[in-house]
Amino acid sequence: MIIGILKEPQDEARVALLPEAVKTLISWKTSVWVESSAGASAYASDQWYQESGGEIHTRKEILEKADLICGIQPLAEAEIGQMKPGAVLMGQLSALFNPKLTDYLIQSGRTAFSMELVPRTTRAQAMDVLSSMATVTGYKAVLMAANLLPRFFPMFMTAAGSITPARVLILGAGVAGLQAIATAKRLGATVYAFDVRQAAKEEVLSLGAKFVDVEGAKEDKSAGGYAVEQSAEYLRKQKDTIHEHATKADVIITTAQIPGRKAPLLVEERTVRAMKAGAVIIDLAASSGGNCALSQPDQTVEVNGVRIVGVGNLAAEMPQDASKMYGKNYLNFLKLIIHNGELKLNFEDDIVTGTCVCHEGKPVSPRIVQMKSA
Amino acid sequence: MIIGILKEPQDEARVALLPEAVKTLISWKTSVWVESSAGASAYASDQWYQESGGEIHTRKEILEKADLICGIQPLAEAEIGQMKPGAVLMGQLSALFNPKLTDYLIQSGRTAFSMELVPRTTRAQAMDVLSSMATVTGYKAVLMAANLLPRFFPMFMTAAGSITPARVLILGAGVAGLQAIATAKRLGATVYAFDVRQAAKEEVLSLGAKFVDVEGAKEDKSAGGYAVEQSAEYLRKQKDTIHEHATKADVIITTAQIPGRKAPLLVEERTVRAMKAGAVIIDLAASSGGNCALSQPDQTVEVNGVRIVGVGNLAAEMPQDASKMYGKNYLNFLKLIIHNGELKLNFEDDIVTGTCVCHEGKPVSPRIVQMKSA
Questions:
Q1: What would the 3-class secondary structure string for A41-54 be?
Q2: Fewer beta carbons under 10 A from the terminal one: N or C of chain B?
Q3: Do A160 and B126 touch (CB under 8 A)?
């Protein structure tokens, strides 16, 4: 079988499979076709792909001949149309939130897998791109904040007096939030973290941060580790508590997202206006509405000396290790569907089924089936 | 007496004295006049200066009325000319390397102090702006590198495989180099450091970094902690050793400077070309010729996927804490020349004498006297 790796769109610096992953695929008796400069922005040259056993082909050849195309960003419909019948498309297709593409894939009889659908189970953890990319994002968010802050993160006792540590507030203690906590602690900051899920408290404390408690949150264990919607009374109490902590903070990093919904508003305009001049807010939920009232996607806004950075695809800003982790997730998944160098889709496997958007004209993943029947 | 704080030039975000330092000066029975928005780029508002006891005045008023002007970047000659007779100018005037300004100050009969002339003695350590700003620079250089690197600094053992720590090479283990080592270690990198001075070895090891040894260096204890010029044979051996380490490095931070001379060339072009794609070089000596053959002052150059950042005034990129430390250095010095709210220049004090460029038409600091008689 031929596995194809295409160059991602202009604004995506990652590549789904680095040469090291290609080497593994070759050892599985597959052929790997790579579009020229597919890895360039992740610092992986064509030569390196070739040395790892890949072949350089044109985009057209790959689209027409590959049995499986592994990417990150979704392909345009016109290009999906060029794929040969029965070929499989894989990527991070946002299948639940991009109904137009999902409908097109179903109606055109394509077989497609969408990596963000990987079930959040223990066995599937090694394939979970949302987790691995959140690790990158949490780390990068802190570096970005530390770089922008006009102050030190660590405490200093110097001949020129003492410098107090920066105070960092992390909102949302999922994978990105926990990585942000760990990185801010590494850099010597005093870290506070908030999460509606009480289960997060222990993890926050174990990283050496202080947990910001707001009582009375609803919890839903079936939400796959995500937070759920809350009562108006709780939300008021939550915003007031965050306001109080925000006025003392040098940095706020917000990471709260609810899949498929607008991100919860956690930092109100009055809160930004009450913050210290020079403070920095990194809003990782900016592209889904923002956790901060004043954030704009992919822009930095300054209000009263407080800079609010609306962050988009932060994982792409550390393309080499992000691609390495993405590729490792991919390989762990591909192990389930490649046997003896051939594609074998085993729909008895809940990970294969859970990740499959559609096959032979029908939705497959229970989440896609549910969406289509809703 | 009136102490004046002027707005620094456009490209200088620091301010010599923040409101907190003004408060101390007021408690010493002085008046402090501040130009409007002097602290703006360091996030210190006019209102905050006023609340701390400062008065907002025009630039012209301050130039004409102040008994002492405390700045960072030197003033233009035309503005120095506006100062009242007997008024004292203080700043980081680069008096040893800016002979035109130094001559003007002497010939016009001005009294001027230049903060970089503060003797490198134990008693003067609390006034040493070169040390405090090097602390900022070393910290910022690592953040800049970590932000640019397409990889993580720390090691990760995740479900998506393991990530090896970044390898960082620090060239020059003075104050900036040691701070860079400490910060890179905080972020989890594996750190190697090189310095011609064997005395640096113990400090490097105590920070948990590995010391890169090149035998046969000349040392000169009278150089005030700076490195001295070396033999051709040693320099060859040094470049070869650095070349070998550089090819394995993800990040190189170069900090080697010899006061008043061109910075030593440590990273040759062949070395850059042998480095890994994605690697980052931060050259802190770029403005004095560069430690890397390919660096350009205030520019980022990319060669074979290696980015070389020629850094200028990095301390100004963290203006709040940099200004705080600058101000503390200033206060410690001003304590020596302000008594009961009045200026009293005691030329019996070796710190006052060592820091004074000129007074009543004559050079005062032994280093300026030596320069003028050479």
A1: HHCCCHHHHHHCCC
A2: C
A3: yes
